[in-house]
Task: inverse folding
C-alpha cells in the first residue's frame, strides 16, 4: 500500500474533483496516477493557436488553458538530445549525445548505464508502453525501447520516415523501419502514422486492467512522428486551410498539426471512456523548435530547429490533470524549466520517491512550483556544449571556456551563446502578404523599435547600419503596414574589427527575441558565464558520434533498419568507458566547484 501523498506538497493543496483528491494516500486511492506523456516532433513556438498561430489546435488549447502552460520551458535544439534528456534526466553532455542526432547506421545510443524514466516507473509498479519515435539507438537489441523499461513499443527507431510506407532513406540507403516491440512489423504500410499511433494508444488504454489485484497505473509515452517532415497528411486535414492565405507548404504542415491535435483529443476521450481520466496526469512537450524549411514557425523568436537561438530551444509545453487544485488550473508557469526536469518531477514530485544521488541528475524537481505557481528551484540551464560543431573565429580569452566552441547557457535572465549557434534569422509567419500578417508583424515591429530605443537608445542599431534611405523606407512601410521577409535581418556575424563573431549575450527576460546583443555592454557577465561553461565542460563526456557502419545498411539486413551488432561487447565497452569518464570528470569538476 502506498502511504505517501500522491503530490508531495502541503496538505493545504488539497483539491476535490469528482470524488478524487490529490491528498489521498494509497490506502484511499486505488493506485498512483496514470501518466500520459505526449511528445510532438518539430512543433514550433508559433505552431499552436494559443501562441497566436493560424494553425488550429483546439484540443491543445483547451487542455493547456485548463492546466498549466509552461512559457519559460526549454528543450534541446534537435531530436535525439531532447529525448535523451527526457529519458535520463541528464543534459546531453552527460550522455554523450550532445552532437546532432543519431543517424541510422551509427553505433550510438543512450548509454545502457542510464536507468530510463520507463525503467524507473516499471520498477514502481507501472505498466509502461511507448508508441511512436524512439531515436535513442538500435544498433544492438539491448538499446531497443523494450530493453529500456517499456513493456511494449509500437513505432520506429530512426529519426524520420515516410508516414505511410515507414521507409527511411539515409546515407547508407533506404530501409523499412516499423516495430511491434522488438520485431519488425510489416502488417500495414498504408495507414497514416498519426492515425495508426492513435489506434494503438486506444488499444493500450481500452485493454488496460484497472480493477483487481493485478491492476497497475499506466505510463503511456506517445512520441508522435508529427509534425516532422516529410509533409504528409490525408487531404481532409488540409482542406480547412485551402482558402487561407497560408503558403501551400504551411497548409500541409497545419493539416499535420490539426491531425495531431485531433489525436490528442481522441486519446483523452479514450481515457474518459475507460474511467481513467480522473486519475491521469497528461504532459505535453515538443522536442525542439519548429523546422522553418518544412512548414514550422517560431515567430517571433529568432532561429529554428538545429539552432541555439530561442526559436530552436524554447519549447511548447503544458501539464493538465483533473487532479489539480482549482488554484492550479488555468495558470501560466514562468519559472525556468528544462525537459530533463520531467524525470525528477515525475519520480520525486508526483510519486514522492527519493532518487539516489548517484544518478547524477541535471533535472530539477519542479512539482511544487508547477502546482503553486511559486518561483521554481531552477536558476540556470545548460543548453549545450558541442565540441564537434564548427569553431568560428578565435577564442577571446585564454583562462576560461573558448568562445569559438559552440555552446549556450542560461543563468537567471542572461543567456550566453558561443561558437556558431546556427542560422540566426527571425522567420516571420509564411503568409507574407496577407492583411493578417502585415497587421501582426507591423505591430510587433513597432513594439520592437520602441524597445530598442529604450534599451540601446539607437533604433538604427537593430537594422544593422542601414543607409538612411533604407531605414526611412522601412519606417514608411511600417506605417503603411507593408513589411517583407528581408526586414528581419540576422545578428551581426562580424565584430567591429572585422573578425568572425563568436560570442553573444542577451537578457532573455527583457529581450526574448534576442534582438539586442549586450556582450560589449557587460563583459563581466560574459566572463562569469564563460567560467560556468568551463565548469560544465569538466563534467562532459566525449560525444558518441561515430561514422555510419556499412554493416548497418538495409542492404545487409533484409531491406530494413534493424539491430546488426549481435554481441554486447561493443555496448559494454562503450558504457564502461563513458561511466569511467563521467565519474572522473564529476569528481574533478566537484573539486573545482568547491573552491
Result:
Amino acid at each position: 500500500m502506498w502511504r505517501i501523498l500522491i503530490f508531495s506538497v502541503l496538505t493545504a493543496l488539497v483539491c476535490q474533483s469528482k470524488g478524487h483528491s490529490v491528498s489521498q494516500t494509497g490506502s484511499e486511492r486505488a493506485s498512483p496516477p496514470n501518466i500520459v506523456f505526449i511528445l510532438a516532433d518539430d512543433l514550433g513556438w508559433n505552431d499552436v493557436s494559443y501562441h497566436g498561430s493560424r494553425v488550429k489546435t483546439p484540443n491543445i488549447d483547451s487542455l493547456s488553458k485548463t492546466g498549466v502552460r509552461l512559457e519559460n520551458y526549454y528543450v534541446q535544439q534537435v531530436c535525439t538530445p531532447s529525448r535523451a534528456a527526457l529519458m535520463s534526466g541528464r543534459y546531453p553532455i552527460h550522455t554523450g549525445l550532445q552532437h546532432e542526432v543519431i543517424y541510422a547506421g551509427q553505433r550510438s545510443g543512450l548509454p545502457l548505464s542510464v536507468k530510463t524514466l520507463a525503467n524507473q516507473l516499471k520498477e514502481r509498479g507501472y505498466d509502461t508502453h511507448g508508441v511512436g519515435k524512439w531515436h535513442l539507438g538500435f544498433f544492438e537489441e539491448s538499446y531497443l525501447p523494450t530493453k529500456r523499461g517499456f513493456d511494449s513499443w509500437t513505432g520506429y527507431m530512426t529519426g524520420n520516415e515516410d508516414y505511410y510506407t515507414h521507409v527511411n532513406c539515409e546515407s547508407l540507403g533506404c530501409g523499412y523501419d516499423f516495430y511491434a516491440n522488438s520485431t519488425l512489423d510489416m502488417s500495414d504500410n498504408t495507414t497514416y502514422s498519426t492515425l495508426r499511433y492513435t489506434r494503438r494508444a486506444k488499444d493500450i488504454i481500452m485493454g488496460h486492467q484497472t480493477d483487481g489485484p493485478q491492476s497497475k497505473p499506466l505510463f503511456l509515452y506517445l512520441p508522435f512522428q508529427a509534425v516532422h517532415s516529410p509533409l504528409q497528411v490525408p487531404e481532409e486535414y488540409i482542406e480547412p486551410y485551402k482558402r487561407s492565405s497560408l503558403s501551400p507548404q504551411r497548409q500541409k504542415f497545419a493539416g499535420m498539426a490539426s491531425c495531431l491535435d485531433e489525436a490528442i483529443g481522441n486519446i483523452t476521450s479514450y481515457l474518459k471512456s475507460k474511467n481513467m481520466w480522473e486519475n491521469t496526469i497528461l504532459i505535453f512537450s515538443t522536442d525542439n523548435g519548429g523546422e522553418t524549411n518544412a512548414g514550422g514557425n517560431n515567430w517571433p523568436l529568432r532561429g529554428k530547429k538545429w539552432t541555439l537561438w530561442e526559436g530552436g530551444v524554447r519549447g511548447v509545453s503544458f501539464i493538465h490533470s483533473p487532479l489539480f487544485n482549482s488554484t492550479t488550473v488555468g495558470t501560466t508557469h514562468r519559472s525556468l524549466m528544462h525537459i530533463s526536469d520531467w524525470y525528477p518531477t515525475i519520480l520525486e514530485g508526483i510519486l514522492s520517491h527519493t532518487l539516489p544521488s548517484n544518478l547524477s541528475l541535471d533535472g530539477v524537481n519542479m512539482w511544487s512550483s508547477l502546482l503553486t505557481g511559486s518561483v521554481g528551484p531552477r536558476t540556470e540551464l545548460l543548453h549545450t556544449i558541442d565540441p564537434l560543431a564548427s569553431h568560428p573565429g578565435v577564442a577571446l580569452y585564454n583562462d576560461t571556456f573558448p568562445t569559438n566552441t559552440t555552446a549556450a547557457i542560461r543563468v537567471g535572465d542572461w543567456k550566453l551563446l558561443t561558437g556558431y549557434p546556427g542560422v540566426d534569422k527571425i522567420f516571420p509567419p509564411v503568409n507574407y502578404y496577407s492583411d493578417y500578417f502585415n497587421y501582426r508583424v507591423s505591430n510587433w515591429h513597432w513594439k520592437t523599435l520602441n524597445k530598442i530605443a529604450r534599451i540601446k537608445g539607437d533604433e538604427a542599431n537593430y537594422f544593422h547600419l542601414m543607409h538612411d534611405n533604407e531605414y526611412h523606407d522601412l519606417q514608411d512601410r511600417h506605417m503603411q503596414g507593408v513589411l517583407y521577409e528581408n526586414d528581419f535581418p540576422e545578428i551581426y556575424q562580424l565584430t567591429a574589427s572585422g573578425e568572425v563573431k563568436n560570442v553573444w549575450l542577451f537578457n532573455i527576460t527583457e529581450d526574448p527575441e534576442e534582438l539586442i546583443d549586450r556582450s560589449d555592454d557587460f563583459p563581466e557577465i560574459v566572463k562569469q558565464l564563460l567560467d560556468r561553461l568551463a565548469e560544465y565542460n569538466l563534467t562532459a563526456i566525449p560525444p558518441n558520434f561515430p561514422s555510419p557502419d556499412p554493416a548497418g545498411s538495409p542492404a545487409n539486413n533484409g531491406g530494413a533498419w534493424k539491430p546488426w551488432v549481435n554481441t554486447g561487447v561493443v555496448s559494454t565497452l562503450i558504457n564502461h568507458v563513458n561511466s569511467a569518464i563521467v565519474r572522473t570528470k564529476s569528481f574533478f569538476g566537484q573539486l573545482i566547484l568547491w573552491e
